[in-house]
Amino acid sequence: MDQRARNIIISIILVVGLLVPVWMWMRTPSKTYRPGSLLPVETATRGDASVAVDRSLLKVMELQSKSFSDHYPNVKVSLTPEPSGRTVLRLLDREAGAAVVDGALIREEDSVVSSMKRPVKKEPIARNALVFIVNRANPLIAINLGDLKRVFSGSAKEWKSLGGQSGELVACVDGSDFRSQAVLSEALFGKARRLSATAMPDIAGVISRVAEDERACAIMTLPEYAAALKSVNGAKIKALPVSRKTGDAPVEATPATVYAGQYPLVSIVYYLYDPYDPTAKGFGAWLAKEGQTLFERGDIAPYRQTERTIILK
Fold it and tell me: Which of 147, 311, 160 is nearest to 240 (CA)?
């Protein structure tokens, strides 16, 4: 083959090599194929989202789901309240597209999530708190973390040892909410350990026990306490402000003190979701942005402050 023919063949190859990618880029996409077609076809603002929720956060998330659906009428968010031991399992078993949990995953949950072939995304969305409640007749007006350690390790047997009146001390927890127990244990002891307390069957049993027994005390989440104050037992219980150590000013648990980091018993609320479920992913995007302003209405604090625009006239 002479040099002229060789040059012609090389020129043709170069032209074809340039034109084919251009044609592939300009042509109309096939209706039967789309990039990312492995993802579900529903958009983030249309379809159904099933969300498993730690039972203590149900009222908080009901506000969020209603507001989300008001903005996007073609979306239906179904919330399923679960004991804290079942919430993540609902997501991992594909019975829900997302889960809302109060506090970090325990070691066993984190291990299962990490071993899953199907990815699970986890985003912090809010800040919650644990409050220490006593009977309204209890004369104590505050408590510190050191004394709470003694209460939930079992070493404090009498109220008098905490500065109260004589009488037996009976600590209680919601036996169905192991996540709150894990948060308390981590805050007090720096590790997971068994708390020394009477396990009640549910939060209603905890509230009833403290309301009816002047010796009793308990730990519960801030939204649960806010709801308890509106119940028939609300006038019979009170939450004690908590200080980090003796001599510090005790701090009342409110969304403002929780967000500011002033209150010492704080947990992070996480949204876990299947990234291949666009409606669950869209609800998560809402919680991380527009939904931040709604969390305070549910008696917890936002994870981050949203930007506010002030118009000066």
Answer: 147
